[in-house]
Amino acid sequence: MKKDLLSIRDLTKDEIVDLINRGLEIKKGGRSTKRPLRGYTMGLIFEKASTRTRISFETAMFRLGGETLFLSAGDTQMSRNEEVKDSARVLSRYLDILVIRTFSQEFIEEMSEWADIPVINALSDLYHPCQILSDLMTVKEKKGTLNGLKVAWVGDGNNVAHSWINASRLLGFDLVMACPADYKPRAEILEGTEDNIRLMDNPIDAVRDADIINTDVWTSMGQDSEREQRVLDFQGFQVNKAVVETAKPDVLVMHCLPAHRGEEITDEVLEGPNSVVFDQAENKMHVHQAILEKFLVTQGTRTK
After folding, report:
1. pTM score, two decimals?
2. Gyration radius of the chain over CA positions
3. Which one is the CATH code of 131-281: 3.10.270.10, 3.40.50.1370, 3.40.225.10, 2.40.50.430?
4. What is the pLDDT confidence band of residue 23, given thresholds at 50, 70 and 90?
5. What is the pLDDT of residues 217-229, one digit of tens each?
6. Is 276 helix (H, G, I), strand (E, B) or coil?
């Protein structure tokens, strides 16, 4: 039976840990001569612009010996109102795995329902599970563990924040989030959260004694018309030197990029000694290799 990755909740705790450890093994091993995905083809369906996600997935597939077809949604018949269920079943006859970066989580879920091949969420407006896996890999790489840590989130309660909530539920680390009043995570995602997940109004309180500080842009793709208002509403939620100094001395500062320097994070912090954002970005490639291996080789979803 095929398995999809639509949100972190599609994985068990053990599966998350295995993917992180495998990503670390792949990174340590460097350029392997093994090509377990030779003869496999990955389809990328992207409605949103991308630098890191597209290149890291394409490079991951190349290093594993497979091929990639990049499908801009506007270049397919889906842009002319072909039924999603028809596209999903046809693409399943051509491809071995689908990686989708889009606005609508519902679109990804409908593709998953009708596709006979694994469907991976490379970003939707609701979740960003692959990003969180690379973030967790970076934490494990730098801290040696995912246990007993305090993770702070400062800024918009967006898709990345939602995925951190799901990861905290599964792995049990403390997650403290500071978001402006009108930009908190969705109520249905927070519903039933355990004591290890807390919301605060003040970033300084949220990051106090934190092991990890996370942030993201104030205005995401598709929200450009809100930019001016958002810049006003997010005043006081910048990750700057004063905020970082409230955390532990060896705190890791993370940002999934692209960054708007001077808004959600200062240049001083992004380029500072606590920043791991470029290791974080590199680790997308390694964890994506682990994901492709798991969903195509380990699970044996298709015989070549």
Report:
1. 0.94
2. 19
3. 3.40.50.1370
4. very high
5. 998 877 888 889 9
6. coil
